[in-house]
Amino acid sequence: MAPKEPKEPMRLLVAVDFGTTFSGVAYLQTLNDWGEAGGEGEKVPTILKYDLGQFSPPTFGFNIDDDEDGKIEWFKLGLYPNVEETSLAKKYPTKTPKMNDSECQRHVVNYLTALREHTDTYLKDRFGDAFWRSTPREYIITVPAIWQDKSKDTTLVCAEKAGMGPRNKIQIVAEPEAAGIYALQSMENIDLKVNDTFVICDAGGGTIDLVSYTVNSLKPIPVIGEVVVGSGALCGGTFLDRIFADYLTKKFHDYGPWDDEYQAAALKVFEKDIKRKFAGDTSRTYTIRVRRLPDNSALGISRGFLEIPGKDIKKVFEPVVREIVKRVKAQIQATESGGKKVKAVLLAGGFGRNEYLRSRLRDELGVNIDVRKVENSNTSIVRGALIYGLAKKVPRLATFLVDTNIARRNYG
User: Fold this and answer.
1) Considering the chain, what is the average pLDDT of its residues?
2) Structural domain tally of the chain?
3) By the 8 A CB rule, do 202 and 182 touch?
4) In sequence order, what are the residues at sequence separation of 6 or more whose Cβ sits closer than 8 angstroms to the Cβ of residue 250?
5) Could you count the other beta carbons within 10 Å of the beta carbon of residue 68?
6) Hey, is 53 helix, strand or coil?
7) How far apart are CA 349 and CA 204, in angstroms?
8) What does each C-alpha distance from 289 to 8, 152, 303 come to in angstroms?
9) 227, 207, 282, 225: which is closest to 22 by C-alpha?
């Protein structure tokens, strides 16, 4: 009689997609309850606010109003100061002042602590206090593919300080790699064959991250290998918000009734509705409620609504989409210069869901390269990270393998 395999100890794997502008958490499903502030969604804003001073416990996520002063944003980028600053980032900078390494790391620790504490509360409520106390949690955290070892090590140090366990127990996975893993697991009609090469474009809120993979085998499990060094830059979806804010400021610069309250309300509608739905239709008019403002045909105000032509929205999108298209083309060129023909571009991340971005990429890349959105693109990274973590912890349950990674130089 063959000896029984030893049982795997009970533990709970928790994946964290720590993003520049939004973050997500998953264990066996994604968290979608982010507290009393109405924050129901699969991701929570990567924002902090110190109400009682910089060294007090901060407020985080949805508990901070969109128009509040004193918000700390984009602090994740301080972990990798070498990220390429595009013309977009120079023209439309974040309002958060630049910070030194210690300030950045303190914000990262505080944010990850708040995220971990909220997750603990959620798990206690869902599974009960006894299960939570008796079952250790092990964390997987995602990082951009372009990060070098120093930035990854700093992330692990911050995660350890945030209570996510000793750093040698915390796993790290590249964000596009996690998205690629999830895509191969979930997209039944992806139609990728052995030796096919594809590019993952993780289009997030602050940055895009590009990595090329070749399918080395599909049976018994998919095996993918990285082809060339990935690339990334500051040209994510939140630049649309900044450009739209600039558009409104210029439009209403000498119109007295337009104040900060109207500006903030209009930005919220753009971020939560118009930006997500825009697919390139310039014949459509988009409306924003502006109660109590008198009619003004020159400004497009009629019966309490601001009417914005689709062509103006397209102009808002154009600088961001143009930059992303340029970056995707460069990644494809680098891949194909090494003898690999790119068959598909898979879009992940929050802005990866946008139909206009996909249609522009299709037009620019031509019929020989398929452009698709990864299913559940907004949470594909955290879902893929969980699959990755499970495979590393319990190899017999692995449903994929990434067998090569291109070395990235570490500049000390």
Assistant:
1) 87
2) 1
3) no
4) none
5) 13
6) coil
7) 5
8) 56, 45, 9
9) 207
**Residue 206 Cα distances to 60, 84, 129, angstroms:** 18, 12, 37
Mean of pLDDT values over 61-73: 80
Sign of CA dihedral 159, 410, 232, 368: negative
Joined tokens for residue 174: 């590249």
**Higher pLDDT residue, 382 or 97?**
382
| pLDDT of 29 above 90 | no
* Domain interval for residue 87: 12-176+383-404
Is 6 contained in some domain? Answer: no
Q: Is residue 113 part of a domain?
A: yes
> How does DSSP assign 274-314, residue by residue?
IHHH--S-TT-EEEEE-TTPPPBTTTTEETTEEEEEHHHHH
Rounded Cα distance, 282 and 153, in Å: 47
DSSP bridge pairs for 292: none
| Count of beta carbons in the 10 Å neighbourhood of residue 273 | 13
Per-residue model confidence (pLDDT) at position 336 = 96
pLDDT at 404: 62
Cβ neighbour number for residue 116 with a 10 Å cutoff: 20
pLDDT tens-digit map of 83-94: 777 888 889 888
DSSP H helices, 235-379, are 238-251, 260-269, 275-277, 310-336, 355-365
Residue 26 maps to a domain: yes
Here the tokens at position 328 are 């995707």
Alpha carbons 98 and 103: distance in angstroms, whole number? 9
- SS3 call for 373: strand
Global confidence as pTM: 0.88
Confidence of residue 41 (pLDDT cuts 50, 70, 90): low
Which residues contact residue 283 at a Cβ distance below 8 angstroms, ignoring those fewer than 6 apart?
310
- For 139, phi and psi rounded to 5 degrees? -105, 145
Whichever domain contains 45, its CATH number is: 3.30.420.40
